[in-house]
């Protein structure tokens, strides 16, 4: 049996938060049987009513206490066990080598109580331990990060700020997002057409979905991404963000299967980009919401090494025959070396480039539809963990076959040689 490293119960407020069902049932019972309590008050007086209330309160407190005692965690060198449930006991076991990231959240309503939520992300989805005290959360976070093969992300003296997003830049970047602006304009025009044509106030109800989408695309993003800071630590990188719900997560270099750099149309004058990463358990994990291209390239060099810049400086565009298969054929490109592969997409609203080490490729797929066969082009897809793939779009058949063969050979060679997943700069 593995030695126990950390164990304990969650914060008592957790049981109170989860006891809303018992509190609701108790409240309904009291209200539905209020005539019984009136009879008790008439027959036994105020002492009898107080005794009845004490019994009900004792039952509720015992239920909450037992629920709290049955909610616990145990961390060993191999796995993390999480047990909860009052009548139906549930136990979830997470293998430590399957944990991709460890996130800490400071909920808005939990800050006065000093509680935090710790989330463990795996390929099957996240598991949240809510809530823990600040010391217990930090100890569990550091212990899990240490057991997964990296030093503690909390260690002082090793931190350096990689990226810091100011509130002004974040607000302006949201307003200048071409996809957001176009979606709001088109959606608003369509939503308010019935009101303009009919003049009935009830027709404004059709605009409610648009208002919800507008809030999610603009107003909701600002408090979520406010104060975004990326720090380099010994465990990899730690991201801190949030205006109301303070959150942070630590991601390790060797967990990053791909990095995608997005540049919306209206950001090009300021040379701004958004950086996301493909990590198992996080599909398109946001690494930086807005940064300059120089900062993004510096982050790529820190994660993958200086050789990645040579790849980004030499995109190979598609041939003219691809213009019959896509309107944005001028924005499609692909490039690869012995260690990396990169694919470019987009021309007008948003341009993206996805970079991945060859060692992270799980499979190579060559597809060719009827229209593509007629024009002699095909797609090559490099399948990666984390939900983001690198694509060579509408390449000529000869080139597509050559890319697929080269990527398969590179996969076999790196697997035999045991090439590291990432190549951080020294």
Structure description:
The protein is an alpha+beta fold and 426 residues long. It is built from twelve helices and 21 strands. The strands form four sheets. Strands 7-6-5-11-10-9-8 form a seven-stranded antiparallel sheet. A seven-stranded antiparallel sheet has the order 14-13-12-18-17-16-15. The protein has a four-stranded antiparallel sheet with strand order 1-2-3-4. Strand 3 (79-84) and strand 4 (90-95) form a beta hairpin. Helix 1 crosses helix 3 (34-69). It is globular. Residues 422-426 have low confidence and may be disordered.
Produce the secondary structure layout:
Elements: E1 4-9, H1 12-18, H2 20-32, H3 34-69, E2 72-76, E3 79-84, E4 90-95, E5 101-106, E6 116-122, E7 125-132, H4 134-147, E8 160-164, H5 167-175, H6 178-198, H7 208-219, H8 221-225, E9 229-233, E10 236-241, E11 246-251, E12 256-264, E13 272-279, E14 282-292, H9 293-304, H10 307-312, E15 316-317, E16 333-336, E17 340-345, E18 350-357, E19 363-367, H11 370-375, E20 377-383, E21 390-396, H12 397-417
Antiparallel strand pairs: 1-2, 2-3, 3-4, 5-6, 5-11, 6-7, 8-9, 9-10, 10-11, 12-13, 12-18, 13-14, 15-16, 16-17, 17-18, 19-20, 20-21
Helix pairs in contact: 1-3, 2-3, 6-7
């Amino acid at each position: 049996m593995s030695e126990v490293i950390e164990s304990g119960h969650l914060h008592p407020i957790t049981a109170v938060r989860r006891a809303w069902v018992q509190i609701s049932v108790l409240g309904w019972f009291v209200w539905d049987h209020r005539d019984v309590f009136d009879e008790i008050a008439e027959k036994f007086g105020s002492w009898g009513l107080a005794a009845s209330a004490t019994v009900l309160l004792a039952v509720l407190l015992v239920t909450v206490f037992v629920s709290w005692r049955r909610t616990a965690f145990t961390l060993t060198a191999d796995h993390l066990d999480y047990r909860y449930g009052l009548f139906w006991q549930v136990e979830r076991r997470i293998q430590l080598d399957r944990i991709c990231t460890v996130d800490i959240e400071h909920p808005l309503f939990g800050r006065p109580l000093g509680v935090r939520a710790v989330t463990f992300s795996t390929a099957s989805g996240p598991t949240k331990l809510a809530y823990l005290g600040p010391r217990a959360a930090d100890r569990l976070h550091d212990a899990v990060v240490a057991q997964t093969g990296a030093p503690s992300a909390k260690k002082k003296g090793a931190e350096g700020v990689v990226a810091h997003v100011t509130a002004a830049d974040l607000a302006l970047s949201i307003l200048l997002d071409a996809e957001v602006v176009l979606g709001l304009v088109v959606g608003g025009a369509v939503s308010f057409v019935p009101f303009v044509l009919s003049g009935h106030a009830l027709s404004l109800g059709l605009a409610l979905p648009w208002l919800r989408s507008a809030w999610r695309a603009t107003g909701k993003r600002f408090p979520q991404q406010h104060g975004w800071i990326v720090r380099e630590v010994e465990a990899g990188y730690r991201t801190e963000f949030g205006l109301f719900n303070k959150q942070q997560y630590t991601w390790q270099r060797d967990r990053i299967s791909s990095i995608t750099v997005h540049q919306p149309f209206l950001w090009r004058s300021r040379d701004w980009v958004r950086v996301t990463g493909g990590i198992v358990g996080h599909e398109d994990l946001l690494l930086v919401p807005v940064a300059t291209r120089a900062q993004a390239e510096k982050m790529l060099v820190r994660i993958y090494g200086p050789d990645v810049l040579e790849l980004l400086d030499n995109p190979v565009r598609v041939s003219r025959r691809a213009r019959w298969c896509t309107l944005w054929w001028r924005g499609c490109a692909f490039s690869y070396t012995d260690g990396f592969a990169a694919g470019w997409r987009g021309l007008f609203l948003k341009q993206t480039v996805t970079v991945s080490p060859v060692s992270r490729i799980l499979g190579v797929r060559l597809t060719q539809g009827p229209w593509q066969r007629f024009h002699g082009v095909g797609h090559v897809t490099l399948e990666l963990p984390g939900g983001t793939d690198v694509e060579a779009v509408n390449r000529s058949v000869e080139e597509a076959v050559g890319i697929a063969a080269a990527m398969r050979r590179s996969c076999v060679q790196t697997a035999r040689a045991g090439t590291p997943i990432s190549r951080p700069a020294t």
